[in-house]
Specification:
Blueprint lengths: L1 H10 L9 H13 L3 H20 L6 H13 L2
Helix pairs in contact: 1-2, 2-3
């Protein structure tokens, strides 16, 4: 399943943005699970940037993203 996630993301570069934080998190996990540690690191780093921006600008993330934000913050603590 992770391989499919990576293939779909590569076929649709528009998905590789920070507009959907959950998608970035899942893509990073898929890269890690398919042995692409460098790409996983890039995706996690990009996700962390979104979290940092959101923390500096309260209200930027939707309620849907709040749980994910806390998981990301904990992962990089």
């Amino acid at each position: 399943q992770s391989r499919t996630v990576v293939e779909v993301a590569q076929a649709n570069p528009g998905l590789l943005t920070c507009q959907d934080l959950d998608l970035m998190w899942r893509l990073a996990a898929a890269f890690a699970q398919t042995g692409r540690a460098d790409r996983a690191s890039d995706a996690y780093r990009q996700s962390r940037t979104v979290v940092e921006v959101a923390q500096a600008n309260p209200g930027l993330l939707t309620c849907q993203d709040l749980d994910l934000m806390w998981r990301l913050a904990a992962a990089f603590a």
